[in-house]
Amino acid sequence: MLHTEVVGAIRAMLLEGEIPPGARIPERELCDKLQISRTPLREALKVLAVDGLVQLLPNRGARAAKLTDKDLRDLFEVCQGLEALAGELACERIGDAQVATIEAAHIEMAQHHREGDLAGYYRCNRLIHEAIVAAADNPVLSGLYESVTARIRRARYVTPMTPERWALAMQEHDAILNMLKRRDGFGLAHILHTHLRHKREEVIRAGFAEDGRMSEIDR
Amino acid sequence: MLHTEVVGAIRAMLLEGEIPPGARIPERELCDKLQISRTPLREALKVLAVDGLVQLLPNRGARAAKLTDKDLRDLFEVCQGLEALAGELACERIGDAQVATIEAAHIEMAQHHREGDLAGYYRCNRLIHEAIVAAADNPVLSGLYESVTARIRRARYVTPMTPERWALAMQEHDAILNMLKRRDGFGLAHILHTHLRHKREEVIRAGFAEDGRMSEIDR
DNA sequence: TTTGGAAATTTTGAATGCAAAATTGCGATT
DNA sequence: AATCGCAATTTTGCATTCAAAATTTCCAAA
Question: Complex ipTM, two decimals?
Fold first, then answer.
């Protein structure tokens, strides 16, 4: 299944920043690197254009999409909506075992917080958010969530936090776990919504956007 | 821009049911019909597979995706989430003129309801929902909404309603307009959420799913 | 030196070609 | 008559080719 692998390979390059945002993507060059012909490569580029990772310019090739401040805002907003929905549905469907798994990740995350280990914190954090989405048992939701979060992952999990913000985020996560245990879908949706809004404000304040002044060659 | 047009043409065929759900899509045949070669056709099929309209089977071609009851549930749930989010954002951003446009559509819709004109009702209904999403001023949200609603459009806007359900839907729309006028994002999100849940229950009760018993040749 | 513009080169978009996989058709065997 | 197996045909996946568009190069003129 060559085509699928190519999509994955290019997606990884884009998400890792191996192909920097805004950079042109010369077909020939990528073909050489991936050892494939242009046909599957071009199919992959069109697929990636659908979920916004690549921008296709007619007769002028493809380039890695840039995240503007507006893009970040829009993506985080949608993420808010999707996670809130996921929380609500998860409360209807999650089993005790799944809650226990999340609680374990939560406890480990709190430990990382106390130790000031941001990378460890983010790792557990991500596990928790993804577990809630998985618990919603809705493949359409999972797919959209994956697509949206992939685009903001670096912003979300790289931006440093002030101690105050970090403490607040931990408090919010305490509330998230609580709502989940109580199966309070409404409350969980609300707190997730707020949690993500805070994260968004933080990321945008940090100025993560990739739409700096373009150099001439970027045009 | 051949590729884009091909995607549109095939999407239309799938949504209109011109290619029935579950049917195989022989490349050669479609190429002849659209007067194109296999390359852009195959690109289009892969693009359509991304948003779930087409199912790609390795070495065995493409087929029009079927909507199972589970798919309908999942899609409606996501739609609930997206519309609720749209409502909330719309209240922060919508202008008086846009509200006035929606109110006009609402009034016309109420008239259609009184006259028992279901088609006219649905037409206005759709305008209102789409206007709310547009007012959220979030292209990512609009894109996902379009993709999700396209797949359930026939179910949503074809299913007949009992007089009671129809009256309830109208009541809900009165509330929607009210919340919008008052810019009550929270309330609007809630009522939209409920409104869509009712619609979903209705559609699933009506048994719109396309996953009936497969005949042998469908395999 | 800088600018204008045409020719050469590169790159893109789509058609065609080719090998591998899957499907079909047909006949032999039970 | 039904079933199995194998060859013929079709269909798919990818590579290659070809024409059109865009980009670059290069040289002449201001």
Answer: 0.92
